[in-house]
Amino acid sequence: MATADKPVMVVGIDDSEQSHYALEWILDHFFAPYASNPPFKLVIVHAKPTPTSAVGLAGPGAAEVLPFVDTDLRRIAARVVEKAKEICARKSVNVFLAEVVEGDARNVLCEAVDKHHASALVVGSHGYGAIKRAVLGSVSDYCAHHAHCSVMIVKRPKIKH
Predict the structure, then answer these.
(1) Above 70 in pLDDT, residue 135?
(2) What is the radius of gyration, based on Cα positions, of the chain?
C-alpha cells in the first residue's frame, strides 16, 4: 500500500515517560511488526507551549524574561523530537513525520488530526487523579471529546509490588 493511500495515525508527545511509553507501545503494536509496510502513516506531534503560557505572568519585567523562556522551550522541543526519533530508530521505524507546533497541546493535537486527515490520535496518560485533572485539565480527556477521529489513550501498566 503506498504511503499516500494509508490512514494517518497522529501520536502526541511531550517530555514525559508516559509519552515515551505510548510511542513505544504504538510502534510495537502498529509499526514494527509490519517492517517496511505498516498499516498507518505515522505523524508525531509535539506541542511547544508559548513563552507567555509557560511563564504565566505579565506586566513589568515579563518582556525581558520571554526570550529566555522561548529559547528553553525550543531546546526542550528539539530534545523531545530527538527522543522520539531515537525511539523510532530503536524499533526500526524510519518513515514518519515529526512536527513541533506552538500552542496548547489540546488544540495542537486536535488541529493536527484535521490537518493530516488522521484516522487515529494516540496520547499517553499521565494518570492524574480527579482533582489534579480537574485543575490542570486533561489533554487526553479533551482530545477524546473534541478530536475528529478515534482516540487511543495509552496507559502505562501499574507496577504491582
Answers:
(1) no
(2) 17
CATH class of this structure's domain 8-52+69-154:
alpha beta
Give the pLDDT confidence of 61-99 residue by residue, as tens digits: 677 888 888 999 999 999 999 999 999 999 999 999 999
Query: Pick from 101, 93, 42: which is nearest to 77 by CA?
Result: 101
Contact 42, 31 (CB under 8 A): yes
DSSP strand pairing (8-13 vs 41-48):
parallel
Indicate the pTM of the whole model. Answer: 0.88
CA 133 centroid distance within chain:
18
Distance CA 55, CA 19 (A): 23
Strand partners, 10: 43, 121
| Poorest-pLDDT segment among 22-31, 110-119, 122-131, 144-153 | 122-131
Q: At what angle do helices 105-116 and 139-146 cross, to 10 degrees?
A: 40
| Domains of the chain, residue spans | 8-52+69-154
